[in-house]
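name: query_chain
kind: protein
chains: 1
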Amino acid sequence: MQILQFFNRQKHANFTFVFSQILALGVSASVLLHSTNVNAAEQVVLKYGKFQGVVSVKELNQFVETGKTTPVLQAYLQAAQQNPSVARKALTAGIKADRAFLNSLLSSWAGPILVSQIGEVIHPPEKQLDEQGLRTALSTSINQSGEVTLLGAIRNYPGASVEIEGDRLIEVYQRLSQFAKSF
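structure:
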C-alpha cells in the first residue's frame, strides 16, 4: 500500500513540475512574441510637398486591410491626388519569395539597391536614410511574411516614427515591381 501511495505522489509531483515548466515556457514565449516590435515605428509622418500629416501605424494597417481612411489620411490622399486603391496596392505589393532567398538577396549585391529604392520613400523624420535600420526592418518583414513590401518596412522600422514621401510612393512601387520581375 505504501508503495502505491509513493508512486501516486511521484506521478503528481512530476505532473506538477512538467506543468509548471510548460506554463513558464508559454509565458516567456508570449512575452517575447509580444515585445518583438517594441522598437518598431508607431506613427507615420505622411508627406506630400509641403503637406504633412501624422497617422498611427495602426491606422495605416486599417487603411490597407479595409480601405477605411481617417480624416488625416483622406486629406493626404486628396492632397497627393492619389487613388486610395493604388496607394493600398503600392504599400502591400512587393517581392515575394522564399524567406532564405529574400534574406540572401538582401545580403547580396542587390541589397543596397533595394534599401536605397525603399529608402527614397521611407526614412526617419527629417533625417537621412538609416540604411542599417531599414535593412533590419526589411529583414524582419521578410521573416514575418516572406516578402518585401513598403508596409512591412514601415511596420518594422526601428524608432518611434517613420516618414513616407508620398510623391515618390507610386514611382518607387513601379521600380520595385520591375526589380521583382528580374528575380
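note: DSSP finds nine helices and six strands in the chain.
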